[in-house]
Amino acid sequence: MISHIIDMAKTLNLQIIAEGVESDVQASFLRAHQVEFAQGWLFSKPLPVSDFVNFLCRSNDDGKAEFVEPEVVKARG
């Protein structure tokens, strides 16, 4: 069933974010199906914003965190 949802999203040219990834098996499945983004306990516990920024920016040998350049969002005014 998950494969069908992934295929449907890809057909619609949507980016996919997998939520609740808790195991290497789940992460491997998602990578094999070219799911672009994932979050969950496998990568980190829930974090306050400042800790999250540090998490993203720190150098990490286990491959579970990479810095991603954030998009700049302009305030509406």
Q: Biggest sheet: strands, sense, closure?
A: 2 strands, parallel
Counting DSSP H or I runs of 4 or more residues, the number of helices is: 3
Instruction: Indicate the radius of gyration in whole angstroms.
Output: 15 Å
- The coarse overall form would be elongated
- Beta content comes to 5-15%
List the helices and strands and how they pair.
Blueprint: H1 2-11, E1 17-19, H2 24-32, E2 37-39, H3 49-57
Parallel strand pairs: 1-2
Overall description:
36% of the residues lie in helices and 8% in strands. With 77 residues, it is mainly alpha-helical. Strands 1-2 form a two-stranded parallel ribbon. The termini are far apart. The model is unreliable at 67-77 (pLDDT under 50).
Summed up:
The chain has 77 residues and is mainly alpha-helical. The chain is built from three helices and two strands. Helices cover 36% and strands 8% of the residues.
